[in-house]
Amino acid sequence: MKIRSFANFIKHDKNMMFSIILLSITLVMILIGVFSKYDPSQYFLFPKSEPPSRSNIMGTTSLGQDTFLTLAKALPNSLLIGSMAAVISRILAVFLGTFGGYKGGKTDGVISVIAESFIVIPRLPLLILIAFTFKQQLNILSMGFILAILDWGWPSKRYRSQILSLKEREFTQNAKFSGMGDVEIILKEFMPFLIPYIIVDIISGIIWAIGMETTLSVLGLFDLEIPTVGTMIYWANYHNAIYRGIWWWWGFPVIFLIITIFGLYLLSASLQNYLDPQTRIQRIKVSKEEVKE
Amino acid sequence: MKKGFLNYFIPRIIQWLIVIFIGITVAFIIPRLSPVDPVETVLNKMTGYSVMNPEAVEELRESLQAMFGTEKNIFVQYGEFWLRLLKGDLGPSLTMFPVPVIDVILTSLPWSMFLLLTAIVIAWILGIFIGTITALNSKKKWAKILEGFVTFLYPIPHYILALVLLFLFAYLIPIFPLTGAYGMGITPQFNMQFLFQIIKHSFLPALSIILVSLGWRALSQKALVSNLLSSDFMKYAKIGGVPKQTRFFYLISNSALPQVTDLALSLGTVFSGSLIVEVVFSYPGLGQVLQSAILQGDYNTMIGIVTFSIIAIATASLILDLLYPLLDPRIRRS
What we know:
The complex is a heterodimer of chains A (293) and B (334).
Chain A: H1 2-12, H2 14-35, H3 67-103, H4 105-120, H5 123-133, H6 140-149, H7 153-167, H8 170-177, H9 182-218, H10 229-238, H11 247-275, H12 277-292
Chain B: H1 2-33, H2 38-49, H3 54-68, H4 74-86, H5 101-136, H6 141-153, H7 158-172, H8 192-229, H9 232-239, H10 244-280, H11 286-296, H12 299-327, H13 329-333
């Protein structure tokens, strides 16, 4: 029954269908990357700067790497950084947003003002300063963490406004009078309402973090030996690939980055649509009519 | 009446001060968390590039120690940092020693401002326009295609879009120049030809910023207009026979206000995007200064740009916030 309703949902939602197609391309690439034994840091295993051919379907780089396999190794790394940044920043945001919204008063005021500041501050220059300072310590883990510290402002503001409206509902009072503690109310009563929004938020966080990782890597502010989409483009720029006509070196990373990002974006858009109460009512009507037919 | 104004202004000014305070404090703390001594690292990097005479090295070390003051108490350092900042002193640039960082920023600032302001204004107006017409014609095919197009552009990072545009329209089909702000060997002067050169050179950078910001503006405007269309006053206006142009004006004036607030909040993101776009197109703005500072390890310039951009963006968004009551009759009257 559930599978059928899900299938029905996809049929009505073109965004979801398109996003599944795009993300499965990414998934295939990731699986290839995870299972292949290719090591991108081994240079000159292949002839240099060869255009796409039957033996190297995406050509080779000027460093003698296979572009396809390097990209297959790079894409999971980029996604890993993005997911880590998104998850950490959302955990932070949930904690601060719900706590502030629930407590109200001065605590809420202080947290909101700080969150607002993190929204207004231009983040790229600050990220550049942080990444430059800790350049020797940069790896996948620390990069995810650095990106996370700067990306909790918006989501915490959203969760706070959710909590403010949930707080006024009757069940909160019921829970309070039946002797539940604050932490228990937030975890047991409010979380079920928040989780769908957090999931959508994590996806949009991944998109931002992947973009920022790419930007920082292109500027050389990452461990350039770790293959990511950004470092691939960095090395392509370093060897002037654009002006030398080696388009496959930077073109394929760009194409796969766009496929991944757009797939994720469509997924978040369709989930958001699914969660929106207004469209939910419309959908129930449509599916009821179908049952009648 | 006066009290209402103060109630509106004072919290915003306090918020502005707090944004600057937090931003500057972060910019102060980060270099001090560095596991290696910034003074020695910078010195090694600077002297590694070129042979400097010992006096200059000593002078450089002194200014670096004044900047990072590793031997003084951290609170004293923090106080001195603020004092220098209030005097508008961001320290000397290390690569162009002893030119002050603030001078380096001010020379590149007009280019950045020109590019950024043009792009923001065009993207804002165009985004609102596209959002409104797609909401009004949501059943038509062309509106759906237009919406799909802006939706596709919106999540793409600035760097990637700029790179693709550079490749397509400067390398593959060379309509636009690859780099710079005006042609090589041309001296800046005020005439039509020079103006045309500038427009031609800033077209692609501006387009990259516009296309990305356009998506969000158009999508949010569409949501706003769709809500307005189903609101009571729009329905009454239609039934009451208010002409179409007047109703269109109602829509725009009611939806433009939230978009002003939104613009104030999104300035930081657009600014970050324009920095990286400037790097891609070698446009002589702040982005380029920042990139060369990264390449040459010019820590002072980097901190200077971070501090400057935090103050500038916070102030710009404060100005937009303060303009808001002038635009909104409801706040103006209360």
